[in-house]
Design a protein that fits this description.
Shape of chain B: flat
Radius of gyration of chain A: 21 Å
CATH class of chain B: Mainly Alpha
Strand content of chain A: under 5%
Oligomer: heterodimer
CATH architecture of chain B: Orthogonal Bundle
CATH superfamily of chain A: MetI-like
Helix content of chain B: over 70%
Distance between the termini of chain A: 45 Å
Number of domains of chain A: 1
Number of strands of chain A: 0
CATH class of chain A: Mainly Alpha
Shape of chain A: flat
Largest interface: A-B, 51 and 46 residues
Order of helices and strands of chain B: HHHHHHHHHHHH
Number of domains of chain B: 1
CATH topology of chain A: MetI-like fold
Order of helices and strands of chain A: HHHHHHHH
Helix content of chain A: over 70%
CATH superfamily of chain B: MetI-like
Structural class of chain A: mainly alpha
CATH architecture of chain A: Orthogonal Bundle
């Protein structure tokens, strides 16, 4: 254990990077998921087909492949776009490549979650809100979204749990997250078991705490 | 896009598909063998064993597969007594480390699926088996387990897809699986994404095959459910 203590600040900073990556990824995924659900539910052919293609793509490709594609392919794309408008090389840091890929992947899963939550609502709810004279925005905000929350929470919690574990693969493109730091330090200190053991405990802690939080949130939404 | 280079490198990718399929299938088979006793132990609350099984499942379901793989591949080499033991012949090989990690990981997820299916078996089914004079062991082996396996078929299909995708981390510890082949192609010709795109397409292809196989299995083994109104299958595998 003594080997680990001097590196504790470094490891905790790595854990903060992991958490930031997961939270920003979740934010992007939530936005994409909402957009995707709207596209699927809109009933228009083109948006629905685009969203179906998006989810099919995500279903078929492993998260690590997506991260590498976004990082290397995205950098190339940025270079080409930059050259087109006469800009210098715009760097794509591993952290943002990670946020983009995690958000892109889990946005597809959240599309399904949100769509399911919307379809779980009885059609009469929207009709009743209309009958009361509420506009489209007000109907959504005051009547539909609060009820969708309850149906979406279990799925949302599930996506978060998988998303958190998925952040580990971003270390492969050289991010100094918890896994990346432990990998570097563990090898240089010749104590990989100790350092990766610490990483396992942190992930267990994150999943345990968020499991508790989501359980409380679900109880609150279902009260 | 350098399509010629990709086509020329087909042996590289064929080998990659073979390694990915090999690792995935073996890990799933071993994982399922592990999952059956673990699920029973957790269902029956066997004293002493239950706590161990709970801990195993919580550890492997609560942490990233990549870190589990690092733990086995890099972590275990920290112990000299292990390096001197017979097990080192296996543990120094990336392939065996990947297989062991994937099997343990898959076993944890599959046991959770199975436990749910075992617990959801209608009591009447077991009563009927007992009424026919089957001993408790026979009820487990001939009625409970087959029924639970059959019922968990859709979720096991998801697990197969997740293991297939999860196995891509094997490329990080030098294995030339599908992703490994793609990265090798990129490195050899200084490409940015051609190899990765090919790998992505191959993973999609294998995924489609797996989904097709499980559809066929479900049609066969869950035929009694086909009479009920057909449930619309989700476009994505349910998150595990």
């Amino acid at each position: 254990m003594n080997e680990l203590l001097p590196f504790l600040p470094l490891l905790l900073r790595g854990a903060a990077v992991t958490l930031a990556l997961a939270l920003l990824g979740l934010a992007l995924a939530t936005a994409l998921g909402a957009l995707g659900a709207v596209g699927r539910l809109s009933g228009r052919r083109l948006p629905a087909a685009a969203v179906r293609g998006y989810t099919a793509l995500v279903r078929g490709v492993p998260d690590l492949v997506m991260v590498l594609l976004v990082y290397f392919g995205g950098q190339r794309l940025l270079n080409d776009l930059g050259a087109l408008v006469g800009l210098d090389r715009i760097p794509l840091p591993p952290f943002w490549a990670g946020v983009l890929s995690i958000g892109f992947i889990y946005g597809a899963y959240l599309t399904e979650t949100f769509r399911g939550a919307y379809r779980a609502l009885p059609a009469g709810q929207a009709d009743a809100a209309r009958a009361l004279g509420l506009g489209r925005g007000a109907t959504l905000r005051l009547v539909l979204l609060p009820q969708m929350l309850r149906h979406a929470l279990p799925g949302y919690a599930n996506v978060w749990m998988v998303l958190v574990k998925s952040t580990a693969v971003v270390s492969v493109i050289g991010l100094g997250d918890l896994v990346g730091v432990a990998n570097d330090v563990g090898k240089s200190q010749r104590a990989p078991f100790l350092f990766f053991g610490f990483v396992l405990l942190v992930y267990l802690g994150i999943t345990w705490v968020s499991g508790r939080l989501f359980a409380a949130a679900e109880r609150r939404a279902a009260r | 896009m350098k399509a010629g280079l990709i086509l020329e490198s087909w042996p590289l990718f064929a080998e990659g598909v073979w390694i990915t399929v090999q690792l995935t299938v073996l890990a799933l088979a071993l994982g399922l063998c592990l999952a059956v006793p673990v699920a029973f132990v957790r269902l029956r609350r066997v004293r002493g064993l239950s706590a161990l099984a709970d801990g195993y499942v919580a550890l492997f379901r609560g942490t990233p597969l990549l870190v589990q793989l690092y733990m086995v591949y890099f972590g275990l080499s920290q112990f000299e007594w292990l390096r001197d033991s017979w097990a080192w012949a296996l543990l120094r090989e990336a392939w065996w480390c990947a297989l062991i990690t994937f099997a343990l990981n898959s076993g944890a997820y599959a046991s959770e699926i199975l436990r749910g299916a075992l617990a959801a078996t209608p009591a009447g089914e077991l009563e009927a088996a007992r009424a026919l004079g089957l001993r408790p062991r026979q009820v487990d082996r001939l009625v409970l387990l087959p029924a639970a396996l059959r019922r968990s078929l859709p979720q096991l299909g998801n697990e197969v897809v997740f293991m297939l995708h999860g196995s891509a981390v094997a490329s990080v510890i030098t294995l030339q699986d599908i992703l490994g082949a793609g990265r090798a192609l990129n490195a050899r010709y200084y490409l940015a994404y051609e190899g990765l795109l090919t790998a992505a397409a191959l993973y999609m292809l294998v995924t489609l095959v797996v989904v097709g196989v499980f559809r066929a299995l479900e049609r066969r083994y869950l035929r009694h459910l086909a009479l009920a109104p057909v449930r619309v299958r989700s476009r994505l595998p349910a998150m595990r």
